[in-house]
Amino acid sequence: MRRLALGILLLLTHLCEAQFGSAVAFPNSSEKTVLDKSPEFFVLNWKQGTILNRSETPMEIVVDSVGAQKVNIFRDNSDAPVLYSSNIITPVCADGDCRLMHITLYWTLLGDYAGFDRSSEEPLTKHDHDEFLFSDYWKLHELLKDHNSILKRRAIDELVTKPKPSTIEGVDALSGATIKEVKESVVSGALYSCYVAWHLVHGDIKDQIKAFTVAQQTEGMLVRMLNNENINYQMYALENLTKNQYDTNFSRISTLFKSGIPLVRSFIIKNLAESFSKEPNKMQPFWDALPYIDINTRSLLLQHINTASEATVTSISGQLSVLTKNQIRDFLSHLENKSQISSEILKNLRAFADSSKEKNSYLVVQFLEDNS
Amino acid sequence: MKKLLIVTLLLFSSISLFAQDVLVEAESFDNPGGWLVDPQFVEQMGSSYLNAHGMGKPVKNASTKVNFNKSGSYHIWVRTMNWVPGDWEAPGKFQLKVNEAVLDTVLGTRSGWGWQYAGETKINKKNETHIELVDLTGFNGRCDAIYFSTKKTTPPSSPKKLASWRQELAAEPNAPEELKTYDLVVVGGGLAGCAAAIAGAEQGLKVALIHDRPVLGGNASEEIRVHTEGIYGNFERILKKIDTKHYPNGSAESKLDQQKRDENVKSYDNIDLFLNWRAYDAISEENSVKYVDARQTFTGERKRFTAPYFVDSTGDGWIGFWAGAEFSYGRESVDTYGEYWEEHGELWSPKEADNAVMGSSVLWGSKDTDSPQSFPEVPWAMPVSKDYAEVNGEWQWEFSRNDLSQIDDAEEIRDHMLRAIYGSFSNAKKDEVNKNRKLEWVSYLVGKRESRRLVGDHIFTFNDAKVGKEFPDGVVIEKRAVDVHYQTVLEDEKNPDFISEALFYRGPQYYIPYRSLYSKNISNLFMAGRNFSCSHAGLGGPRVMLTTGQMGAAVGYAASLCKKYEVMPREIYTGYLQEYLDLIEEQKYEKIPTSKK
Known about the structure:
The structure holds two protein chains of two kinds.
Chain A: H1 2-15, E1 34-35, E2 41-42, E3 52-63, E4 67-75, E5 81-94, E6 97-107, E7 113-118, H2 134-145, H3 156-160, H4 176-185, H5 191-201, H6 205-215, H7 219-227, H8 231-240, H9 243-248, H10 250-259, H11 262-271, H12 273-278, H13 284-288, H14 295-302, H15 310-317, H16 325-336, H17 343-354, H18 361-370
Antiparallel strand pairs in A: 1-3, 2-7, 3-4, 4-5, 5-6, 6-7
Helix pairs in contact in A: 7-8, 10-11, 11-14, 15-17, 17-18
Chain B: E1 6-10, E2 20-25, E3 36-38, H1 42-45, E4 49-53, E5 62-66, E6 72-80, E7 94-98, E8 101-102, E9 114-123, E10 129-135, E11 139-149, H2 159-170, E12 179-181, E13 184-187, H3 191-202, E14 207-211, H4 236-239, H5 254-266, E15 271-275, E16 277-285, E17 288-296, E18 302-306, E19 309-312, H6 318-323, E20 327-328, H7 334-337, H8 345-348, E21 360-361, E22 364-368, H9 382-385, E23 392-393, E24 398-399, H10 410-429, E25 437-442, E26 453-454, H11 462-466, E27 474-478, E28 482-487, E29 500-505, E30 510-513, E31 525-527, H12 536-539, H13 545-565, H14 569-575, H15 577-586
Parallel strand pairs in B: 12-18, 13-14, 13-19, 14-15, 19-31
Antiparallel strand pairs in B: 1-2, 2-11, 3-4, 4-11, 5-10, 6-9, 6-11, 7-8, 7-10, 16-17, 17-18, 20-26, 21-24, 22-23, 22-25, 27-30, 28-29
């Protein structure tokens, strides 16, 4: 009943294009002041026993018809910032039918989506007033994780009208692929809620949060980010650590080179290009990672083959099956430029050339013919 | 039977003395049957070839007839390749039938392009010899050539030796004997090339338009089926003659637009259209292109083209490349042009330059039928598709990898996409809901987004688009978001490596200056299309086909002024800019015939 009353109130205000203004902003009393467990839907790792305490920030999110809503920061016991959050109450209007959406949103230190808590009293509902099921919340979580969602670049009107071929200059009509993408990414029957939530999470507040964090950035924060599993934290740390800090954290960086995502690996190896010639021994863990890394990064690694030890070159000659055609070509051309090829390398090459299951064996056959 | 197809001669080297040799080029077969002539990778593997693109159903035999000068016992080699070697049966298997006998050897089973020994057969010179290619799988078996010799000496495999061996065998002189002279030679008949030819022709130029496919339009053609995007800018009248409707990519509707485009271009009397002709060289002297040499993709016939001005609308920038034009490939470092975009960081513009480029797509689709449809097991496709299941493919089906060049490794890229398609469709077929579904269309042409970018007097960058920078010579206009793609596997190795994502930067209307449309160091070379002068991120917006079409029209008009004043493209900017801009303004409307004035 209360919801209905609010809905009518909001509908009226919406129709009148009026705003409640901050004087009638909804209280955020339900927002937690201490976080002792992970938000229900969360993208970061939550270490057992973590306790985070809330404090205020000057940042706020202004929601149409409702007004400003506070953005808070959660810090750990050592006062280091960990998360941002905001208890959001916002109207969601579809075809003149407005309802309130209650949700507590979390952001990472870099302003990326971190997760959400649903309201136990005010569950999210769909267009037909059915409450969200757990699977719907999960889908919403997946949608919010996608910072580059199709919802980013489409007005809501475009997403609800039937697509037709565009005859107007500069207007991209919705293609079949777009319609499919929208359908797959939003909660069925809750396009408006999804759209509103996505734009709250990924709106202007992102940049403000990041700037707020950057203003209090310390070496400790960067090192924590480097050691975190979150990719954007890792990239941010790698982009901002100094050369000395790279040295101090070399162990973690070489681990990330093996275990990170391709984007992180490529960034690391490009940043350490000089070390291959200046400190070849130190870079051995990178060579050891060769069979485990992605193809793009492996190509970047093989660009440093001239600085590799004889033992490393020999080792690679025994791992040709993990290399692509062009990587094998590059490796063979490196061998061709050497004054002498060891018997062990030749043995490895012959074994590869003789294998009937290696699709690139013909390259080595040709190489051995040309260099016999 | 075409005389040029088959070359018979007594080799004069001491080794081959008295040997009788016959080389049959597969693309020159009298009847290709269900096999398709595939000329996409000539620069890499040496020739057009026949491709058994049956989408899993063996195609009809290709056949031809050959006259031998000498009877005897001949050894036979077939130049072929197993396009997915591995721990499974080769996907593209076929056999050779000589007269009534099918040779036992299963072909298409050797890794890498080269000669596979097929066996020995008796030939009687009194009778025409019938040769057929018998496809066994429908999965892209490929045959470049068949070589008969009375001596058992395998022909050379290495690309260099093979080219000279072929030339020697064909007794071809270095340069084509026939010379064709024009005012403007346009190479590449995609949207840019078509628009350039039309604009030039409308201004009275005698134009040659050389295109390596049977139909015009490139990525917009019925063969690739990408719809044209962007705006018409100053050239709506021309571009509406060659554009497409906004149907879903891959739609068969592209056939209607194909007809419109081909008819419109052919309606110009002063455009000589060379369809199925592929340029293979450009000869330059004193930083100026003198000739472009081209070869008929079926017959091997050659022609030399000369003109005071050339347009490189090949997409891959081949004319510029052969002529020695400066070019770039890959991503510049973020500092090169200051193309930083914080939101997407390394994905948008890397700290250090690299070889990453936007990838190529192979579009495809399937349809529901009234009855159950089988689809063969494709174990050779599964390492690429893994458990991905799909029944059609849109623009996101895109492949790029830094160790692969979109030019030099285009065949591997196309083949990777074929594995992705067949594997994903096979996975989808395991779902009961798709039991009646059959593959309707899979392109065998690789639709490229990015390759060489020839360098002009101005390099168009993301920043030019971002701020909508105005230029005195801003002849191409676009409103479309700057849209740069990346492979999703970069962010998560669990993603399929053949699916991309787009990063959109929505900014103001932006302009491409005329100075990005001619070469910096080859004085008479225009460029239009994705090989225009831009950075990697700068290409993100204007790479779509209405924009590249605008570029084509812009250079066509510029060429007409070049001829009028006998000047080079740069001088249109330095000396005749106002007249050029006026001409662009005037051409927007059909002229009223004098009789109706």
